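Q: Could you fold this chain for me?
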Amino acid sequence: MKLVILDRDGTINEGRTDFVSSPEEWLPLPGALEAIARLNHAGFHVVVVSNQPGLGRGLFDVSTLNAMHAKMHKALAAVGGRVDVVFYCPHGPEEQCNCRMPAPGLFEQIADRYGMSLAGVPVVGDRLRDLQAGFSVGCEPHLVLTGAYASGVSDPLPPDFPAGTRVHADLAACASFLVERDAIAKPLAAPRAGS
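A: Sure. Below is the predicted structure, expressed as structure tokens.
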């Protein structure tokens, strides 16, 4: 099974300095929904991970979060894309849970849900913590410059980034990279005729 794990705020939709706390505030980044559709059409299952401390702080409730995700699913369907499932952490940093990124809990839930190792599975995010969480369970880290690092990042990356982190302008560029790499790998993995 081909899987890609995406952070939400700053990767798929516009991030905010506070919280995206209503469907009206959930605004997709240019080309992001089409990028997910491209991944889907290439055979990838897409899963979303997201820290949602606004829930635990009472800034919005689960029904509002579900409404945000319903808006995302509807917008994705309109361009031929889909997200299989959204995993989220409702806790604030002071709660010291195992599911708030950079802790690996959400990724462990994904591994349990799909009954698979996440070794080599791409994780795409706009923040260091997204990549650290995925990398701790073996994911391949991909940074997009559409959220926390929209103003750019140093080359080479700061040493706290996971080894092998790839940098992309946005989710569309990352999706193109993953789809093209997969297309190149397929013929290499296919058995030869007559064997």
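A (continued): Residues 42 and 182 are 8 Å apart (CA to CA).
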